[in-house]
């Protein structure tokens, strides 16, 4: 087997962040070197607490650092309507088992990159605030970043506004910095994530795996589904795991390299990821846009991942 | 025969505008009450002249042609001479119009026509929407008098002049926003549909084989746009952008689409002129103010246009 890819998990858990991390931890192809929290789905205090609880549940032993308290310039927004008051409402979770790192998220990311012999992939499933801050403070470390695999944006549509997706809208300036950094961005936007639907029969398959993590994941999915069903979805669009799955199993996904820029102005379009579909700008592609997924293959991958937790159980 | 549709055509006559006008002239269901010219593909002095010449080519110098805005509401004029030629008709020669030159401004003429049609007038707007915006400003009551505005412009996804914006909307985004906010139902034939309907070089040559003034003009006027499309276009031929809204009026069954909220970005750094739709987003605009055309029976539309052009 190939050497595992070192990764940093940066996210704002969040149900789908947590499922993304479950997939990452279950995959021997990835080596989790650090975990950093981002303000987004909920406040930084809540997402940091959730990050620590999720790491305790999954047995992630990498250091965890608290991210930037809010966006670089934008007024903060949260998604309490989707993820609940705690940011991770639903099943009871274990209390954190590890101390929070005394480093900031950016310090921990930089240290991780500096100490790694190989290039490190950053999986960023929340607003891009921490990653942008890292790129601004440590331009010399860009070459140590293999790629930045994000959940965010959308070439065809937005969700939080008609033009903008939540993670990008939450910190458009940060996203602009990341997209124009020169580091390869692999973007799982709404184009693919709204096709990565998990249906109730799929939750049952996951629950039937029978271990503790399987039970929690199926409840998270159910919670996530309830909200989305109320606004017309046939299943739960599990956005964030796409950012992990597209690294693990690129063959399940359709991708297209495009030049993508982020609108930071605008009355309607702030936070839009603008894809140069017809090559109008003359710029070389900077983003690998993930546009479609083999849904069944994706669900099978999630089911295999929860099976990896057989025999693992923590006290709740 | 069913009732004819009273229609006003607002155009920046251009090459594909000319084709659309020629097609409209042979659609018996359309009762063309007037044509207004606007700056867009080229300056209004040319588009006014071109619309008049095309009416002569159609043998319809009875259709009144009015001159409209010289420039967009709030930004400098951006023309497309690489596609349409300096004169707007790709350098094709047409005999000058013999109709008297009308001096009534486009917006006044449009308002008068709308009043005369008593709420039945539809506007096919196939250039930047400056004339309509000026008309709404001068005559707020016009919003209640127009039955519908069918435009060529915008795109739910992508753009052509920039990655996010289509030429006609980008040309005058403020005017376009005034139209989408007017309360008049808008049908948007944007790039989503118009890029699906195009003539490749061989198909144009086939039209040119009919040795009539109209068909010769089509072959002559489209040379530049064909070469441009083959060089840098997203499609391998000449899109029938402006024919789509004309045919939507008479043959809606050849098109498909969806009601949506649509507004125009006028302040974006890289999205100026984007038609923002809520077709696929969780967040919905409070109102569905437009019908966004997304699909077309391209072979049927092309066949129809060929037949109309060859019927002269």
Structure description:
The complex is a heterodimer of chains A (about 325) and B (about 300). Chain A is an alpha/beta fold and about 325 residues long. Chain A has one domain: Ribonucleoside hydrolase-like (Inosine-uridine Nucleoside N-ribohydrolase, Chain A). Chain A is built from twelve helices and twelve strands. Chain A has helices spanning about 15-25, 45-60, 80-85, 105-115, 130-135, 165-170, 170-180, 190-195, 200-210, 210-230, 240-250, 295-305; strands at about 5-10, 30-35, 65, 120-125, 145-150, 185-190, 195-200, 235, 255-260, 260, 275, 285-295. The two termini of chain A are about 35 Å apart. Chain B has about 300 residues and is an alpha/beta fold. Chain B has one domain (about 5-310): Ribonucleoside hydrolase-like (Inosine-uridine Nucleoside N-ribohydrolase, Chain A), CATH 3.90.245. In chain B, about 40% of the residues lie in helices and about 15% in strands. Chain B has helices at about 15-25, 45-60, 80-85, 105-115, 130-140, 140-145, 165-170, 175-180, 190-195, 200-210, 215-220, 225-230, 245-250, 300-310, and strands at about 5-10, 30-35, 65, 120-125, 150, 185-190, 200, 240, 255-260, 260-265, 275, 290-295. In chain B, the strands form three sheets. In chain B, strands 3-2-1-4-5-6-12-9 form an eight-stranded mixed beta sheet, sandwiched between helices. In chain B, α2 links the parallel β2 (about 30-35) and β3. In chain B, α1 runs parallel beside α13 and α10 runs antiparallel to α11. Chain B is globular. Classes of the chains: A alpha/beta (about 325), B alpha/beta (about 300). The interface of A and B includes residues 259 and 278 of A.
